[in-house]
C-alpha cells in the first residue's frame, strides 16, 4: 500500500536527517538531489520509501551568505533570539546583521543580554539604549539564575518557533539548557541518530517545549554573518528610522553614503538619527 508521511526536520548533517513524525523521531539518508535544499524547520512529505518527495512551501528561511556561498540555518521561524553577553564583548556589527536578516525574512526579533551579574560597560549601556529607543525588544537575564531566566523566556517563547543565534561564548547553550531540562538526553539522541559523536555543537538542533507549545532551534555559534543575498533596499528597510528623511535627499536614488546633499546625513547632524547606527549601515552596505 502506498502511503505518505508528513513531518518536520528537527536536525540534520551532511548525509542524514532526523524528522519528527507525530512526535516520533526517525532518521533517514538525505538523497543527493536535495542535499543542499532542506533545513531544520522544513515540513516535508516522505513517500513509501521514506524519501523526501516534497518540501512544503516555507513561510520564511533564515540564512547567511558570503560571495557565492550560502549557509541555510532554519525555516518557518516565528522569532529570532539574538544572544549577546556583558562579557566577552560581542560584535555590534554582527548583531545588526542578524537584525537585518530578521527584517528581510519578516521575522520578529528579540535581543537577549546574558550575564547581567557582571558589570556592564558604558559602551554597552549606550548600545542597549540605542536599540531600546528604536523599539527593539531587549531582555536581560543571568542564565545561572535558572528560575527567573525560565520565567522570563517562557513568556517570550510561548506558542512560537524560536531560533537562537549568537556568537560563540555568549552563553547560548547554558540558556537553552536552563529552559529545556532534557537537552542532554535529546542532544545525545540526535547525536546517536546522526552518528556525530560527542561534538554536538556542529549541527543545528530543534527541541519542543510542550508545556508552552514552543520550539527552540539551537544553531552553532559563529563569528561572521554575510549578507550577500540581501539587497540594498532590504538592508535599508531594517534601518526604518531613516525613512522619514528620504524626502530630503537631493537624488532619488541616494544611497546615503557618498552623496553630500543627503537627508540622512542632515538628520545625523541634527542629532535625530544615531551616528553609531548610521556607521553600522554604511559599513554593512559597503561590506555585505
TrEMBL record:
Cofactor binding note of this UniProt entry: Binds 1 zinc ion per subunit.
Cell compartment(s), UniProt: Cytoplasm
Annotated InterPro entries: P-loop_NTPase, Ribosome_biogen_GTPase_RsgA, RsgA_GTPase_dom
Binding site for Zn(2+): 249, 254, 256, 262
Main location: cytoplasm
GO CC annotation terms, alphabetical: cytoplasm
UniProt KW keywords: Cytoplasm, GTP-binding, Hydrolase, Metal-binding, Nucleotide-binding, Ribosome biogenesis, RNA-binding, rRNA-binding, Zinc
Keyword rRNA-binding attached: yes
Chain sites annotated for binding GTP: 114-117, 166-174
Domain EngC GTPase: 75-223
GO MF term list: GTP binding; GTPase activity; metal ion binding; rRNA binding
Keyword match NADP: no
Protein name: Small ribosomal subunit biogenesis GTPase RsgA
